[in-house]
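Milestone M4 deliverable, item 7.
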Amino acid sequence: MPESGKVSLCGRIFWRALVSGLENLAVIPAFLMLQLPKRNKPSYGKRRCELLGRGSFIPAEEKTVWIHTVSVGETLGAASFIKLLAARCPDLHIVVTTTTTTGAAAAAKSFKGIAEHRFAPLDAGFAVESFIRRVHPSALLIMETELWPTVLASAKRHGIPAIVINARLSERSRGRFTRFRGAFDTLIAPNITLMAAQTEDDESRLRSLGIQNTCVTGSIKYDITPDKELAAKGLEVRKAAGGRPIITAASTHGDESLMVLRAFHEIKKKVPDALLILVPRHPEEFEKAYGESVSEGFRTKRRSADTMPSPDTEVFIGDSMGEMTVWFAASRAAFMAGSLIPVGGHNPLEPAVLGVPVITGPNYFNFDDIFRRLFDAGGAFAVADVNELAVKAAELLGNPELASDAGRKAEETASKGTGACRRTLEAVLRACPGLAD
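Output delivered:
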């Protein structure tokens, strides 16, 4: 396997031509597919042309930074960093891009008065160039691992530093990149100015792929600050439900909703008054989850009916956007989904900062370091399958003292990881000192 920077000239030409050709062929089908209506999901509407790099012009003399956050999870995870950046550099014009419309809704809510939102251009030369001509970014900050070759190549060509913040790379993902090492060496590694990794293990894996400029700043997701108003609504949910023990199953994917519902049958055998708040990850799965709950025989209500759970509700479908803090704050325990199937799990710090103990399935590789810290402290628990999920959930729901102790440990662990936003900002300003001028 060639070392980074040692790919032959023919190899570089091959990979650039292949990727450019594929992207140009795919851009129109991708653009059209994104316009297809999706149930419970906002449309791109009149802003669809932003996907092709269109949009208003920002004066070239106005110092602008482009921050790409992909979707809801990354957008909310970057919120504390973006607010810190805005406070440190008040004259900086911040443009946050997302790929999804749900991410756009999260950005509009989180960054009102702080940053402008646009949809990210599709990764084709004409779209990216059009975006850059309109925005004139002084720097590009990419959240986590959203590495698009044309975006990176265009940034390099225009002299725009490209910095990946909160970078993470699982061993599984490293293996995938290794299989296409020639493409990575040609299209990705040379065009990245800095990767600010979450952990030393992430940094080691990144460096093994030829990324030379790296540093470790920690996970900015530790710097989550819960919305006090939303947390207070959690108490209202608990009161409306009759003060019963609640477990939230957060961000279920596909068949996971049904798996959790079937586990809930077993939970109720031990904790008959338990309430399940079920929140699918994708809005298009809301209706399916509601139908499955009804089919399983549970007395079911849904948030979209502008309602709260009542004392006789067994399952409550959280089919709304931006209220996950409400559901966690109402809960005695939380199950982070995407982990009974090999999705990689979701951020356990969201419930942990609220003092809620966390359960995960075996597939939590996207948040391995965070989970391991929580496991060691006794604030989180891993289960192998649906049967173990039912046992652990019933144990926590049926024992408020045990749940409270585990929740306290989760909250303490979450608080120890703070400071990553400050370290990340310092790394960004060292790489791009002009942003603070």
